[in-house]
Amino acid sequence: MIEPAALDLGLVVAAHGRHVIVETPEGRRVHCVPRGKKSELVVGDRVRWQATGDGGVIEHVEPRRNLLFRQDEWRSKSFAANLDQLLVLVAVEPPFGEMQLTRSLIAAAAAGIPTVIGLNKIDLPGAAATRERLAPYRAMGITVMEFALKTDFAGAQGVLAPWLAGRTTLVLGPSGMGKSTLINRFVPEAAAQVGEISQALQTGRHTTTTTTWYWLDGDVGAPVRGALIDSPGFQEFGLRQVTPTELAGLMPDLAAHLGQCRFANCSHRHEPGCGVRAAAARGDITPTRWHLYEALHEELSAPPRY
Hints:
The protein is α/β, with parallel strands linked by helices. It has helices spanning 98-111, 127-139, 153-164, 179-186, 190-201, 244-247, 252-255, 275-282, 287-301; strands spanning 8-16, 19-23, 29-34, 46-52, 55-61, 67-71, 76-81, 85-91, 115-120, 144-146, 168-172, 211-215, 227-230. It has nine helices and 13 strands. The protein has a five-stranded mixed β-barrel. A two-stranded antiparallel ribbon has the order 6-7. It is globular and about 65 Å long. It starts with 7 loop residues before the first strand and ends in a 5-residue tail after the last helix. The relative contact order is 0.13.
């Protein structure tokens, strides 16, 4: 068996099922498959591989700094690994769902990935009302960046470019929030890359089917380069990787009041002397956020349906 250190090093820049595209340090891209039947490779993985004909076989995955995934009753879906930060896109129109936004923030917090919220389409009527909906998130210390990608890209670039530079950023959000616009404006060659990757992976189409890595700046081989990772749109975002006892600690507005409960194992649902419920009663936690906690706690406490 060849030692991993003796094999070529590569970066997974696209993945579809068992098939991935690996980029070498020199910038060459190779169609690879993992050895064995089970594939757990995700975009952002650093791998060791060896050539086989016109492609390659991945023999080893380097240790990950982090892994963002969602998990429901039936399966888990990995998005990407080794992220520096997460950008959750929401928009003035169509209105975003707070449950979906909260699930994304909790998943990132569980993985230890810094996150900001990007509010797009602030040129539309309703921007003030959307800002008001996001006020609780600002209050709990989450950065909210505002921009209008289509009508004022220069302004959006001024807001986002310094934050994106030199970092690997996963862009997450449901359809209609502006992910494709952001990717296409910051990476003009993205459409061409999509076609090449789809052909290499033999998917025939791309859009919402694969997660893809796009370089933002710097030369091939440079020590620090920014990158955007475009993720598939999602309708459901399960959190089965989070236990009910972990949930409150992953919601900053609730976590601020932990340690004020009479019982160390307080679920914050029904126990007497609960400091978190007292904070909600005082209005320190908004009713919407409290209802989200109750719904998620009930969901995570229920047995899986498989």
